């Protein structure tokens, strides 16, 4: 990926369009938002694939990410908690729990940050 400076933001061209990143929230996505998004969406994609392979029928998955940051500079992310809301008929809690355990193990973004950011996951059936 290549980035170019444009005022207060760095810009890159991605397959789905331009991505503008800046520490200033008025100029683009903040870097921590992209990091958390990567962890959440990677986990969600892996979770979906595992559920499909295990033939666990679901109709929707929503993910809420709670982020904990160090209050002192440089305000690094210290923890990310992902809460999955899974909708579907006849969902079994033990199967969803097992799928989430596999998700943690197989998500490349979680595995990339696990030694520096604590990533935890919970779920509820809706």
From TrEMBL:
It comes from Salsuginibacillus halophilus. Gene3D superfamilies: 3.30.300.20. SUPFAM superfamilies: OsmC-like (SSF82784). The lineage of its organism: Bacteria, Bacillati, Bacillota, Bacilli, Bacillales. This is Putative OsmC-like protein. It holds the Pfam family OsmC.
